[in-house]
């Protein structure tokens, strides 16, 4: 059996370079997800009705979380925060006495293309640097 060996000069520099790209891509992923999430949040805010009551309004409490990671990949949560989530579910799904006025899922569907465009812009900016 023949043995072969190879020697690469400068391989450590290449390894360090690719490691640094990996770290930078993680940061860009987070920024892109946040930008996409903000587009969805804008759409959700535009779809939810604002009451005249003196209380925390759902429109003002739609947030985008920091990027998180699960077994399925990175993601952000977009929607009403805990302060108003209990009321938002009544609008989204309706009740026995009130029809649904969906704004969370509808906003995500309608804002999908804008979110993708915003994410693409973040990646293109990062690639051009």
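Q: What amino acid sequence fits the structure above?
A:
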């Amino acid at each position: 059996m023949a043995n072969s060996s190879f020697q690469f000069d400068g391989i450590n520099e290449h390894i360090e370079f690719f490691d640094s790209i990996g770290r930078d891509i993680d940061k860009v992923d987070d920024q892109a997800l946040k930008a996409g999430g903000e587009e969805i949040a804008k759409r959700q805010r535009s779809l939810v009705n604002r009451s005249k009551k003196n209380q925390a309004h759902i429109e003002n409490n739609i947030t985008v979380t920091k990027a998180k990671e699960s077994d399925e990949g990175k993601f952000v949560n977009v929607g009403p925060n805990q302060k108003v989530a209990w009321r938002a579910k009544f609008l989204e799904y309706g009740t026995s006495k009130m029809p649904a006025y969906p704004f969370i899922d509808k906003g995500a569907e309608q804002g999908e293309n804008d979110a993708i465009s915003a994410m693409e812009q973040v990646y293109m900016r990062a690639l051009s640097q």
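Q: And what stands out in the fold?
A: The two ends are 48 Å apart (CA to CA).
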